[in-house]
Amino acid sequence: MNTSKYLLFLALVAVSLCHKSHNPLVELRPLLQGDRVPHVDQVQLIATPDILNKNGDVATVRLSGVKNPLETDIIAVYQPADADLTLTSPIKFLPGSLFGSNYLKTGSAIVQLDIVNMHTDVAFIFFKNASTNENIWRDSHLKVGGRSNTITFSNIHHPNQGHLAFTKTAGEVKLMWASGYKQSVQQWAIGKTSNHYDMFVSAHTYTYKASDLCDAPATTWGWKNPGFLHEAVAVLEPGVSYFYIYGSNSTGWSDESSFTAPVPPGTDSLQFVAIGDLGKYQSDKSSEHWGEDNAPYLTTQGILKTVKNGDASMVLHVGDIAYAVGYSAQWDEFLDQIRPVSERVPWMTLPGNHERDWTNGASLNLTDSLGECGVPYEHRFRMPTTGVDKPWYSFETGPVHFLTMSTEHSFDAKSEQFKFIAKDLASVDRQKTPWLVLAGHRPMYIDSTNYEPDGGDQTIAKALRDALEPLIVKHKVDVCFWGHHHSYQRTCPVNNEKCVADGQAPIHFDVGNAGFGMSTNILKQKPDWTLFVDAEEHGFSTVVVDRKNFKLTYHGNQSGIKDRLHLTKP
Q: pTM score > 0.85 for this model?
């Protein structure tokens, strides 16, 4: 194996290990880019159907003719079908250990894989012995065993990935979506009756290139052209239910969705979901970049049930969104995962370390985005920020003023972000929005053993307290939502690391246990200000708030309700 490629492999695997989760696509990279020899067996792959009708349809792949079948053989999914295997990561892959009980005996298997419409055709490639064990690889070499026929979607340009958001202006709602590589004038068609649309809003179209990103793997091995992205803004009647589609006559139109226009600032009540660090899940058990168990799926389904029941009209996602980290296709799959929710209610986000961090001087000097440096995130989730790579903003709905910050950018007293935060806090009308919520990714208070000097939990927490705690206490912030540490945690009302009376300081919540592997590095001696910690189960939090009451409920995905908090105002 080429020495430089193997050293890169070790470095990237080290990044993944520090997050306590293996990284299958990174582990495969030096193998797929290395010196391969053709596989001499008469391996055959047949993919059906030739035409997939809708996003998420199942493709069946019939494999036969494999001699000496191994659990380390793989079938990899490539989109587009003609991708250069030495330059492009597969979207995902299924290992031979999941080909079925007869594979090791017969060398034949029938597997099924869910395919997201990424506006390209699809091919399946068989690789013989894709072991990441260096000794095994050196002895056997990875062998390309065969390529399937190409399959595609009935409408490869079908608009999808719809997600709603608030804007800076009360009464406005934004919709964002993707439509592939055929440029056309896209529209958001809206009406008060199903299949009858009387409002047509033209979309702004944009995209980004590999050269806009910062480094590999985002610019090379993990790059996939996102195609054309779109956003449209509509002024709607608060509290009114609307039906809508998006697209154009030339690309086709999305399936119909519906939502209720958000309540304006100053109204009496609001219900929302708070989560962090969600990521995504492959229901077909295939592996991908930082593959996880089914926690992201269970959390998303729990949120969907909450929204369908009318118990949430917004999602607040406090960073570490898709965990794409340099693998563009993961954004497409994540947006498909959340679409049943995000087409119904605004999905408001802020950046985490895995969206933004890179060594280009604009953020923490870390490499956690693996070259993305915030570009895909800011194009996929266009929040009402103050400018490019200035991902802090505020918005109001119901009786709540939300202020979001980026813990990945400078927040000291001389920074642009600090000045924005100070000005925004001073401008809040507590008669209109009596509740004030601050949200960021890395927590200001956290029960964690991570004291690393560069980006450690406690190092950043102290920096946040030193810079911002006097400000948020002065302006009587009620609640802070954080993520990053993959646990659920709740503090007392706390200032200067001491519990104080209700209403004298914010209560801090860590809601970073939505999907990614749990953080179990909890202090043996619990801090006095820590009242509740769950580092064992994934879940999400729901909030019901009116002008006098703020009620939070924490739901474990398996256990149900595990924690409650009720704050009141006189």
A: yes
